[in-house]
Amino acid sequence: MKYTSTSWRPGTARPRTLYALTALMAVVLLWLPTEQAEAQIGGAGVVFLMIEPDSRAAGMGNTGVAIADNASANFWNPAGLAFQRGTEVSLTHSNWLPAFDAGLFYEYLTAKHSVDGVGTFGAQVTFLNLGEHEGRDFQGDPTGTFRSYDLAIGLSYARQLTSQFGVGISTRFIYSDLAPEGLSDGVDGTGSSVSFDLAGLYRSNPIDLGGVGTTISAGFNLANMGPEISYSDAEDSGDPLPTNLRFGYSLTFDFDAFNQLTFANDFNKMLVRRDADGADPWTQAIFSAWSPVEVCTAAVNECDRQENPENYRSVNALEQMTIGTGLEYWYDQLFAIRTGYFYESPYNGNRQFLTFGAGLRYNIVGIDFSYIYALEEDSPLSDTMRFSLLLDFG
User: What helix, strand, coil percent values describe the chain, rounded to 5?
Assistant: First the structure.
């Protein structure tokens, strides 16, 4: 990939090098919408924070906020740690967006440890390699290659308030290295920020439902709240963090000592609102992002509101959500098969795909695998696979 650096002054638009890399980051997570938004539904920076890391949940249509029963609860719902005991470590690897053949890869390391009478602690490290890029000077001549990456390091804590309800919090340090210092005048190419999450989880005692022991769970996670991330000292040059609310439920049916089936449903809403005047601070966006936005449903050259008002439509809060649905079957807690469906409105990214996965558990070792089958043409998420290794020390 080639990115050209141009002259830049504080207070003006960010240089093309960083603009291109920021656009790449948007593609890394979201297949760019075909519509032009009046008030953007997205428009956040460091969107790698929203990549679903866990192969198990990824195989279930990206559902996990109400399940959250392993170390990956650090991402899905830190309150899920409150119901967990013992020590566990998990590592996930994925060659990201293989359709681009750009050398991108994603790594997620997470762990949890419970302390009797205190609660459960968690930790996570997220790393996204953005590949190698070619820098150019003002005359367009090559200046050498450089690598870009995003990194987040986080800690979590959770505790049960009752036998059926737990709460959790997370905090993380975020570092983004898009370009080396000096590639563009006035910009060092790196940015950093901090964020925190607030989460809750309800998990019922098993109840008899048609003769089948059933556990009902419901949870939420308000994630990535924090100040903007900026790659310069100029005012109004920052990007908001991808603050988002994830909530959902799950039903787990224990048919007998060997057969278990879980159905899960997740809803996710990005709480970012940006318009021509800039982005709302996160303290305001968690409320303002629920209002409808106007989007253009036609090609860019047909998005003049005065000339083509018929090309615009309102997108309500429900259409701004993503919805994940998943199924997981376990045999004797040794072997699992999974499937799911992920939906996003055509007016808000249009990601729609089926997911498939499998898992094995033996002694302290677990292995999970997931695969994405995209339903839209030319999706960069097509054929994305994740592999997770889990060590459960009991």
Answer: 10, 50, 40
Residue 347 exposure: Cα atoms within 13 Å on the Cβ side: 20
Rounded to the nearest 5°, which phi and psi values hold at 47?
-70, -5
The pLDDT of residue 316:
93
CA 322/CA 33 separation, integer angstroms: 14
Give the CA-trace dihedral at 176, 177, 178, 184, to 10 degrees: 120
Structure tokens at 64: 């996990």
* Residue matched to tokens 């890394």: 28
**Alpha carbon distances (Å) from 342 to 58, 102, 371:** 10, 25, 12
Residue carrying the six token digits 């292995």: 367
Rounded to whole angstroms, the Cα distance separating 124 from 108 reads: 7
- Return the residue matching tokens 């045999």: 331
Confidence of residue 181 (pLDDT cuts 50, 70, 90): low
CA distance 181 to 289: 34
pTM over 0.70: yes
Per-residue model confidence (pLDDT) at position 236: 64
Q: Are 368 and 359 in contact (CB under 8 A)?
A: yes
Q: Tell me, what's the pLDDT at 133?
A: 74
- Which residue would you say has higher pLDDT here, 113 or 41? 113
In sequence order, what are the beta bridge partners of 120?
114, 158
The pLDDT value given to residue 178: 83
| CATH homologous superfamily, domain 16-268+320-392 | monomeric porin ompg (2.40.160.40)
Cβ atoms of 113 and 91 within 8 Å: the answer is no
Taking each continuous run of H as one helix and of E as one strand, the counts in the chain are 4, 20
- 320 class by beta-carbon count within 10 Å (0-12 exposed, 13-18 middle, 19+ buried): buried
Alpha carbon 52 to chain centroid distance? Answer: 5
- Per-residue pLDDT band at 134 (split at 50, 70, 90): confident
Backbone angles phi, psi at 273, to 5 degrees: -135, 120
Q: pLDDT tens digit string along 309-320?
A: 888 888 999 999
User: Both tokens of residue 322?
Assistant: 């993503």
**Structure-token pair, residue 320:** 């701004």
Residues in Cβ contact with 314 at an 8 Å cutoff, skipping those fewer than 6 apart:
292, 293, 294
By DSSP bridging, strand 293-296 and strand 36-37 are antiparallel
